[in-house]
Model the fold of this input.
Amino acid sequence: MNAWSFIVWLHVLAGITWIGLLYYFNFIQVPAAAEAAGDKDGPGPAAISKYVAPRALLWFRWGAVATWLTGAAALEYVGGFSTHFLATSGLTAIGVGAWLGTIMLFNVWVLIWPNQKKILGMVEASADEIAKAKNVALLASRTNTLLSIPMIMCMVAHGHGLPF
Done:
């Protein structure tokens, strides 16, 4: 396996981890926690928020970092990070994907994670702060879900015959 193939393999693996967990949160955990909160005979949402969410969020945020770093390595390998990321040679699919991934990484670390810590009780927050945190985290997570579609298309563009 050559270096390019190895970088791409790591990038795809990290991306599957990150985006898979993003979809899990948006399509499974959030609706399940809401359902669990309304189930008077069930274990309640604490079963998810205490045991599952912190572990999933750990993999989620570090999957985001690993995806971005391996993506940056891929950019360097195919002509230079600044060439594609800063579009010094014109707009490229891989460069657009890198920017979408960067925006998504920002959302994970600056908007989602700090607010999830409030929601999960990892940091002290008032009821009003928790309500606001839920809204910010949800909107950032849904934004990432929407951005993931064109980002994935940009990730696979070269493999489908489109230029970098």
Notes: The radius of gyration is 18 Å.
